Amino acid sequence: MKRYKLKITYFILLLLPLFASCTDEEIFQGSGVTEGVPTTVDISVGTAANTAKTRSALLESEERKIYNLYLWVFNSSGNVECSREYSRADLIQAATDLTTSTGEVDADAPTSMGLLKNISLTTGKKTLFLLANYKSDADGLFHVEPEVLNGISKYSDLEKVRAAMTVHTLFRPNGNLLMSLTQTVTVSTATKQIEVSLKRSEAKITLNLQTIAGLTFEPGTYRLGNVPGSTFIAEHAKGTDQTASWDADGVDKKSYWVSEYFQFEGDADNITTSFYMPENRKIAKKAISPASPGYKAERKGYDLRQKQLKSPVAGATDKPNLQKR
Questions:
Q1: What's the confidence (pLDDT) of residue 298?
Q2: Which residues 6+ apart lie within 8 Å of 114 measured at CB?
Q3: How many CB atoms within 10 Å of residue 12?
Q4: Which of the two ends of the chain, N or C, has the fewest CB atoms closer than 10 A to its terminal CB?
Q5: What is the pLDDT of residue 101?
């Protein structure tokens, strides 16, 4: 058998995209809930577990840590009903409150879960939006200006906001991964607690290289091209906003960048690397639920996200675990 020793530099090119309070007491249609009745709820916040496979990837516990959190609750008209920012100290207290209430604790990542207590709302249909790890001054990589977040008065304002990378890098040595979540709930006077699970707005990509039989080569270097420099904080439905593409960086192509050269990890038999980049924010047409094939409760279905389809594919419904988007 012939053996060839090749030293290769890879260039990985990512394809650019082609293309206050309500007091009106009204019956919320279809739910039987009277809108506008003052009430108080707790919100239980969690993050999904992941798997680290390479040295360039973070420890799983680091990927789940929350360093800062912003909560908005919007009413059925899309106007903000309440909002609050939670500091690191607030999140540590929330973790303590959750342990006191349920006994749950995460020793490896204490602030990956917590109980936000005594949120004053009114009854009716609500949209919750949570944003985490959006401050560069807390060792975060992404940043959103405080006045932008403080100025949000309706849900449509969120759809225009982007978090920008303060440093162009493929790695996350300090953790602090950008996360967000949009969730619609119906609040009644019987609602005591709402559970939410934040999702990362950054994709972790693990690349494994294999050779055909009879060919051996030493791992060389690689670089990544067309990496978006920012991402929308909220997911988008393609076509709903003609001025903002569903892609991670919208219509602004100037902020795409090219990485430096990096070495692959492993050896000739196991060539791999992991890196992070802003995620595509196209909204899913079908959500992952506990009923989805392969759903794992401890990961809150996060491992199925890579199997979601962004557009209908022939035969997709016959493939296990695939969720149409």
A1: 57
A2: 44, 45, 66, 91, 93, 94, 95, 97, 98
A3: 15
A4: N
A5: 94
Give pLDDT tens digits for 94-137.
999 999 999 998 888 889 999 999 999 999 999 999 999 999 88
Cross-strand bridge partners of residue 231: 163
| Beta-ladder partners of 200 | 179
Q: What is the DSSP letter of 234?
A: S
Sequence-ordered list of residues with C-beta below 8 angstroms from that of 224, at least 6 positions apart, any chain: 12, 13, 14, 170, 258, 259, 275, 277
How is residue 163 written in tokens? 């978090």
Q: What is the pLDDT of residue 106?
A: 86
Strands 7-13 and 218-225: parallel
- What's the CA gap between 131 and 125, in Å, rounded? 20
Q: Sign of torsion, CA 127 152 77 25?
A: positive
Which residue has tokens 């019956």?
A: 27
Quickly list DSSP for 181-203: EEEEEEE-TT--EEEEEEEESEE
* Tokens (6 digits) for 23: 């007091």
Q: Is the Cβ–Cβ distance between 230 and 162 less than 8 Å?
A: yes
Sheet holding 162-165, edge to edge: 142-143, 162-165, 230-232
Asked which of 6-20, 71-85, 245-259 is least confident by mean pLDDT, the reply is: 6-20
Stated as kind and residue range, the H or E segment containing 180 is strand 179-187
Q: Are 310 and 325 in contact (CB under 8 A)?
A: yes
C-alpha 173: how far from chain center: 18
Q: What is the pLDDT of residues 2-11, one digit of tens each?
A: 444 444 455 5
pTM of this structure? 0.76
pLDDT tens track for 183-238: 999 999 999 999 999 988 888 888 887 777 777 767 778 888 888 888 889 887 66
